[in-house]
């Protein structure tokens, strides 16, 4: 098995490759690097590519995908591409327009997966993070069930093959699942997940509802200053993880990624470094013992890198609940 072949079945009948390439990079990283890294990732064997309107790189990611189709490396149907509906577009009348805008930037006819980036609705407009004169975020009030209906229409229109959510807690997932007249269940919930925040309870809940959990920051986040406390622990320097990497003659990143695969989690790996991109696709070549899986489970401390404290007083702030 390799990055191209191992897929998880989604509840709508489509399949998702279990290893994805994450494309988020801080603003200071030149867009040309995103283009090159995405091409390298496809060359290395990644077939699942994850981006978002928020990342401001869909033009480059789309360009990379199209250039790899044009040079014969892949066909469009070999690629599983995910985009995300940003939170300033959660009003029903804005959902389809936002997806069409992403497709225009990508120069693609459809996305394989379109997900609500977060349940924290913010004021519509051009600003990604609308603020008042005191520098406080300006929130919006939307009915997430109505937003979901607009997502369902995007699937019916063929603009997205599958639809899902991100950063939703159990209560918010249940709200969608219990919606009267629900046409399609979310196929996934993409959340922060790594050995320090293993999301065991949310994972079990998602599995019970046939929803795939997709892990972002699986390597402990790139620690962008705007989002992450710089004093937070560095996952890939964890002594237990490093000792295990030595034991298996692998990198700590490979151990952290393989951990997720064996739990039935679809995992995103973000690196713009060619050597590490190639290493990250080699997680199909070895297996962790059940004892070592338990040891990694023991690293959990419910530690979240992306706490989104700036939105903590939003009524739909997802991280106040236990899970």
Automatic annotation (TrEMBL):
<dbReference type="InterPro" id="IPR020471">
    <property type="entry name" value="AKR"/>
</dbReference>
<feature type="site" description="Lowers pKa of active site Tyr">
    <location>
        <position position="84"/>
    </location>
</feature>
<dbReference type="GO" id="GO:0016491">
    <property type="term" value="F:oxidoreductase activity"/>
</dbReference>
<keyword id="KW-0560">Oxidoreductase</keyword>
<feature type="domain" description="NADP-dependent oxidoreductase">
    <location>
        <begin position="19"/>
        <end position="300"/>
    </location>
</feature>
<protein>
    <recommendedName>
        <fullName>NADP-dependent oxidoreductase domain-containing protein</fullName>
    </recommendedName>
</protein>
<feature type="binding site">
    <location>
        <position position="117"/>
    </location>
    <ligand>
        <name>substrate</name>
    </ligand>
</feature>
<comment type="similarity">
    <text>Belongs to the aldo/keto reductase family.</text>
</comment>
<dbReference type="InterPro" id="IPR023210">
    <property type="entry name" value="NADP_OxRdtase_dom"/>
</dbReference>
<dbReference type="InterPro" id="IPR036812">
    <property type="entry name" value="NAD(P)_OxRdtase_dom_sf"/>
</dbReference>
<dbReference type="Pfam" id="PF00248">
    <property type="entry name" value="Aldo_ket_red"/>
</dbReference>
<dbReference type="InterPro" id="IPR044482">
    <property type="entry name" value="AKR1C"/>
</dbReference>
<dbReference type="InterPro" id="IPR018170">
    <property type="entry name" value="Aldo/ket_reductase_CS"/>
</dbReference>
<keyword id="KW-0443">Lipid metabolism</keyword>
<feature type="active site" description="Proton donor">
    <location>
        <position position="55"/>
    </location>
</feature>
<keyword id="KW-0753">Steroid metabolism</keyword>
<keyword id="KW-0521">NADP</keyword>
<dbReference type="GO" id="GO:0008202">
    <property type="term" value="P:steroid metabolic process"/>
</dbReference>
């Amino acid at each position: 098995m390799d990055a191209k072949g191992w897929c998880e079945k989604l509840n709508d009948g489509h399949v998702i490759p279990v290893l994805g390439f994450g494309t988020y990079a801080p603003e200071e990283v030149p867009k040309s690097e995103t283009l090159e890294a995405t091409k390298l990732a496809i060359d290395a064997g990644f077939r699942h590519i994850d981006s978002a309107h928020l990342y401001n790189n869909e033009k480059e990611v789309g360009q990379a995908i199209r250039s790899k189709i044009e040079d014969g490396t892949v066909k469009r149907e070999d690629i599983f591409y995910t985009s995300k509906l940003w939170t300033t577009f959660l009003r029903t009348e804005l959902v389809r327009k936002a997806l069409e805008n992403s497709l225009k930037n990508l120069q693609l006819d459809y996305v394989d997966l379109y997900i609500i980036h977060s349940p924290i609705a913010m004021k519509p407009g051009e600003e990604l993070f609308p603020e008042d004169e005191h520098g406080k975020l300006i929130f919006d009030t939307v009915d997430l069930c109505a937003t979901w209906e607009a997502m369902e229409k995007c699937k019916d229109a063929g603009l997205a093959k599958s639809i899902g959510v991100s950063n939703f807690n159990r209560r918010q997932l249940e709200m969608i699942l219990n919606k009267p007249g629900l046409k399609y269940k979310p196929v996934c919930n993409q959340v922060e997940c790594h050995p320090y925040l293993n999301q065991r309870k949310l994972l079990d809940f998602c599995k019970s509802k046939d929803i795939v959990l997709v892990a972002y920051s699986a390597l402990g986040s790139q620690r962008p200053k705007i989002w992450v406390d710089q004093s937070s622990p560095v996952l890939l320097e964890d002594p237990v993880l490093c000792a295990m990497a030595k034991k298996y003659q692998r990198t700590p990143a490979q151990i952290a990624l393989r951990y997720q695969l064996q739990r039935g989690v679809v995992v995103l790996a973000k690196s713009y470094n060619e050597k590490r991109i190639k290493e990250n696709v080699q997680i199909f070549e070895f297996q962790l013992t059940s004892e070592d899986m338990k040891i990694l489970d023991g690293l959990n401390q419910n530690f979240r890198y992306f706490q989104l404290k700036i939105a903590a007083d939003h009524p739909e702030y997802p991280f106040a609940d236990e899970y």
